[in-house]
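Thread: quick sanity check before group meeting

JM: Hey all, I'm pulling together slides for Thursday and realized we never actually wrote out the predicted structure for the chain we discussed last week. Dropping the sequence here so it's in one place. If anyone has concerns about the input, flag it before I start.
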Amino acid sequence: MPISVVMPALEMAQETGKLISWLKKEGQEVAKGEPLLEVETDKAVMEVEAPGDGILAGIKVQEGDVVPVGQTIAWLVAPGEKPPAEATPVASVARARTQAARPVPAPSAVAESAGSTGGRISPKARRLAREYNVDLSKVRGTGPDGAITTDDVLAAVEPATAPAAAPVVANDALSPVARLMAERTTQSWTTAPHFYLSRDVDATALIGVRARLAPAVEKESGARLSHTDLLVALVSRVLTRHPRLNGTWTGASVQANREVNMGVAAAVKDGVVSVVIPNADKALLVEIAAKLRDKAERARTGKLHPADISGATFTISNLGMYGVDSFHAIITPPQAAILAVGRIAERVVVVNGQPEVRPMMTLTLSCDHRVVDGAQAALFLKDLAEAIHDAGDILG
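JM (edit): ok, ran it. Output follows.
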């Protein structure tokens, strides 16, 4: 029986996916779980695995096409079997999409009724319609069953809604990662009540542990041990004693997460992607180093898998390698907090009443006040500072 290959939904609120490439040619045999195609979403380019065994046949979508999620784009068939005949070809919602500049939104009330096709309206499309002053009753939906997508709303924006004298940069000039960053940071900054706590930490033990364990880690995994690797291990262990910091804001309540899945911000072209180390509190240091190196490299080359960037419950952002002393990071929704890490630099500090030069770094914790209060955040930083001081005992 033929197996349909559909445009997958690789992230929440995804409406369409762009086919980057087929990794198999029509007529080739495919094994279940084998990489079959590459799809671009708002986050990154990801490899999609074959849903079953068979011969790739009946390809309906070409490279560069943007297709609604859930639509069949090809079939996997048995030898001698033909793909089902379909009367309606798959429509690419962006094959001929105009590259015209999109205007700055003007605040106004708009009609919230369904478009002329009577289709559904996604929450994201409805929000964009409000921002861009688009009357949804006049929008023709191109999604499944006539659903109105975000692309439909943006295509319906009228140039007159933008100030004539204001220069406008086309949204199409932004990469998917840059667009996602803009959207999510705006959402977080405007909805989550941020507050910040900073603490200077003596990094002597951290440096010592890295120097001592680096040769063994590199020999076993081939990965160079970094201070970020050590912090992932330490922060994850401390989070098990502070479940609020590892919680998730659901919109009305706090959800406790049983797992500690650590997100680590990784720089890519035109933006930042958080790669995820699942169950980081239980992972060995050599595993953390190997996974971070592998996922960061695949992030830079656009070869991420959906699991690589999904399910983080807390995030670390380290800019110390860029010479930054300290900074305030924006929380990644729906997480409760993010830790910003500055560089390790020698400073004069008072130790037992005497001035000494010590390698110090500044940790800045950004918290969502709906989930975490100041006392809870302060206790977490206190325990983390102690864990860094005792890194040699904790990490071996």
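AS: nice. Residues 204-221 form the longest helix (18 residues). DSSP finds eight helices and 17 strands in the chain.
JM: adding both to the slides.
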